[in-house]
Write a structure and sequence with these properties.
alpha+beta; Heat Shock Protein 90; 3 domains; 6-stranded antiparallel sheet; 5-stranded mixed sheet
Length: 419
């Protein structure tokens, strides 16, 4: 009799266990089916999202439906900083914007996160991780987060991953559009500069030639002489500017081909000084070159232009009494030719030294005797020297007033390089 009762109890317990297990499996199956449908709908809707705000709204709505809760979403900007507000689903058709009390504290907690989520005072915050940075947070109310089943947690992970993919895709598209716009703007700017420069070259050459001829025909004590000298000087400045602009456009287009040949350093230096002396005959330039012939692999035309730009820069920032010198030495240890252009002018403000090789950078300090510029000469020098495998630097002299610009050129040959 006892055995019969025991057997009956065991059978009853097993039946209840199997029934409960079957019901639990049925519930999980329904949850999984519902979650899968929601995930499928979420993925489809994210594909059609117009912007990051739209993506956040779609994700918030879908996750709220899956968890039957009022879930929120906070997105980060392109610099990785959280927005000041986040959206929260309060009904199937309505979302509200809520302010973040302390954005910096929230960001600090997320940056140091070592678990799947951060537990705050009101929400469990689940990060949305992109390929390179954190894109945002899914904010699940505390009570809902505590009651989540394993299948709901897995589904939440899947939905967050889908949201991250959509946000990453949108940002990549934004960057691509921005990049294409910048390329188009740069191409337009280059074409405009090239067109203007070519159109200015011919009349400027005529003005320079005519003004030089008139100067030679006019006595220095004639009242018209300084006017013609001013025209000649300004036309030369404009001509130099045009040449730099044309060099800039060729550099940016990658059309400036570097054809290295072994050239005598003193001949290239001499050609640059003769060019400067024609335009600034009143300035004296000291030259120091090795006694032995120094052959340097270079594109002589381009390095000559580098020296002209450096000397032109020195002349603009010195008076007639200031010393300007050019020297060439050989660095045997590193197998480099070292070119130096020094002046005895007012020097460069220390805070500006790191910026002088940036495109269109001009000194914020206006020297009384300095001629105007638009910040192209030194950046072009930098590009040409780097294309030769060398390096250019600038510093204020320690042995007196003035600036020293130094560039190096390697002494090994690499033919037919391009910039």
């Amino acid at each position: 009799m006892l055995k019969s009762i025991t057997k009956s109890i065991i059978e009853s317990v097993m039946a209840r266990f199997l029934t409960t297990h079957a019901k639990q499996n049925a519930v999980e199956a329904r949850e999984k089916e519902a979650g899968t449908k929601i995930l499928y709908t979420l993925t489809n809707h994210l594909t059609d999202a117009a912007d990051i705000h739209d993506i956040a709204g779609i994700a918030t709505n879908a996750i709220s439906k899956m968890l039957n809760s009022n879930v929120g979403c906070l997105w980060f900007d392109t610099n990785g900083k959280p927005e000041q507000t986040f959206i929260q689903q309060v009904s199937p058709q309505k979302r509200i914007h809520r302010k973040i009390p302390d954005v910096d504290a929230l960001l600090h907690r997320i940056e140091g996160l070592k678990t799947d989520y951060d537990i705050g005072t009101e929400f469990y915050d689940w990060p949305i991780y992109g390929r390179e940075t954190t894109l945002g947070l899914i904010r699940v109310p505390k009570e809902t987060a505590k009651a989540m089943s394993e299948s709901q947690t897995r589904m939440l992970h899947a939905m967050i991953e889908s949201t991250a993919l959509a946000m990453d895709r949108f940002r990549a598209m934004q960057q691509r559009i921005k990049f294409n716009e910048e390329i188009a703007q740069e191409r337009f700017r280059g074409n405009l500069l090239r067109s203007i420069s070519h159109d200015l070259r011919t009349p400027l050459s005529g003005i320079i030639g005519t003004s030089e001829m008139l100067l030679n025909m006019t006595a220095k004590d004639d009242l018209r002489y300084p006017l013609m000298a001013g025209i000649h000087k300004d036309a030369n400045w404009l001509h130099s500017l045009v040449e730099n602009i044309l060099s800039l456009t060729r550099l940016q287009d990658g059309k400036l081909v570097l054809n290295k040949q072994e050239e005598a350093a003193e001949e290239v230096v001499g050609a640059a000084i003769r060019h400067i002396s024609r335009h600034y005959p009143e300035h004296e330039i000291a030259v120091h070159v090795p006694d032995e012939l120094l052959l340097v692999p270079m594109d002589a035309k381009l390095i000559r232009q580098v020296l002209i730009n450096l000397l032109d820069n020195a002349v603009k920032h010195t008076t007639l009494q200031d010393e300007i010198s050019v020297s060439v030495t050989k660095d045997v240890e590193r197998n480099y030719a070292v070119f130096s252009v020094r002046d005895s002018g007012e020097g460069i403000v220390a805070s500006e030294l790191p910026n002088i090789f940036q495109m269109f950078y001009t000194s914020r300090v206006k020297h009384s005797d300095a001629q105007p510029g638009i910040g192209l000469g030194l950046p072009i020098c930098d590009a040409v020297v780097k294309a030769h495998g060398g390096r250019i630097t600038a510093h204020n002299r320690t042995d007196g007033p003035g600036v020293e610009l130094i560039f190096t050129l390697p002494l090994e040959v690499k033919d037919h390089e391009s910039i």
